[in-house]
Amino acid sequence: MIEIDSITLVDVISAYKKSCLNYHVEPKSKILEQLQVQEVTNTHSRARCLDLRGERLDYHACESLEDILKLVQFDFISLRETELEENGASSLFDMVLYYESAAHLDISSNTNLGILGWQALSRLVQQSSCLWRLDACNMPIPEYPAQALSKALLSSRLTVLCLKNTCLSGRPLFTLVSTLKGNTSLQELYLANNNLNSFQDAMQLGDLLKYNRCLKSLDLSNNQISDSGLEEICEGLGFQKTGLRNLVLWNNQITYRSMVHLAKILPLVNTLETLNLGRNNLQNDGIQLLKEPLIANRSILRLGLVHTRVGCEGAVTLAEFIAESRQIQRLDIRKNPVRTAGLLALFLALKINRSLIRLDLDTAPKEEKEEFLIETQKNLLRGICDRCVSNASAAGEKNPRSASPGHG
Length: 408
Fold this sequence. Notes:
By secondary structure, the chain is an alpha/beta fold. It is built from 15 helices and twelve strands.
C-alpha cells in the first residue's frame, strides 16, 4: 500500500505498470518517459504535464491510467487525438473529476465520445473545483452535447473555454449563449472556425455581449460574420461597460461599409484593449471612418489591421491617429501595400507619439523601382523601429518586439 503523502517516482511507475498488467495493455513508453522528467515527490504540488496526444486510448488503456491519476495531479493533461470512445472517455473523465487530476484539459480531435462521454465531461466541467480551462476543438458538438455542456456551465468554475471548429452554428450556439448570458466565471471564449453566420449566429453573439459582464476575451476568427453581423455585435458591444477587453474578428468577410457601426460604438467603449480586424476588406475608406472614433476612444491599446488592403492613404490616416493617441501601444499593418509616402507619415507621427512601442510593418520595400526610394523605405523602417524602441525604453518595456497580436 503506497502512502499517498510520500510517493516517489518509482511508486508511480510501479503502480502504472501493475495496472497495465491487470488490464492486459502494454505500458506506453510516452507516459513512462514523461513521468521520468516530472518532479513527483508529494501530492501537495501539481506536476506540469501529462501529454498523451496521438496515443490511442481504448477502454482498457484508459482504465490503466487510474493509478497515475490517483497518485499525481497535473497542471495540464492533453488527450488530443487519442481516439477516445464512449466507455473509455466516460471512465477517464470520471477519474479526472474524482481525483481532481487536471487544471487544464485538452480533449480536442476526439469525434466519438458518445452520449456517456459527453455526460461525463459535463459532470467534470460542472463539479470540478480546479479545472479552469477546457479545449474541445476540431470535433462536432451537435445539439445534445451542447445542451449537456451548457447546463454544466451554469455552475462551472471554468475561466477559459476553447471550442474552435466544432460546428457550433445555429441551435448549438443558441443553447450555449443562453447559458453564458448569466455565467459569471468564464473570461475567455474561443469560437474560431465555426461557420458562424451574419444572421442568427451574429444576433446570438450580440445578445451574449449585451447580457454577459464577465467575459474578457472573445475570438471569432475565420467565420462569416460579414457587415450585417458586425452591426449586431456592435449593438451588443455598446452594453460592455466593465467587461470585454479583447475582440478578434480576423477573416470574417467584413468590409469598409460596416465600419460605420464600429465607428458609432468605439467612443462609448471604455474597456476594450485589443481589437483585431485583420484579413478583412477595410481599405482606406474604412480606416478613414475609424480615425476619429479611435482618437475619441480611450481604452484600445492594440489594433490589428493585417491584410486589410490599406494603402498609403490609409497609412497617412493611421499616422494622424497615432499622432493624437496617448494610449495606443501596438499597431499591426503587415501585408498591406504601404509604400514610401505612408511610411514617411508613420515615421513623422512617431516623432510626436510616446505610447506606441510596436508598429508591425513588412520589412521588404514595396513596389518601388528607383534605388533612392528603396533606400528611403529602408531608412524609414529603421527610423520607425528606433522610435518604437525609444518609446518602449521610456515606458520600461524590456522587449517591445516580442509576441504578436496578429491572428487571434
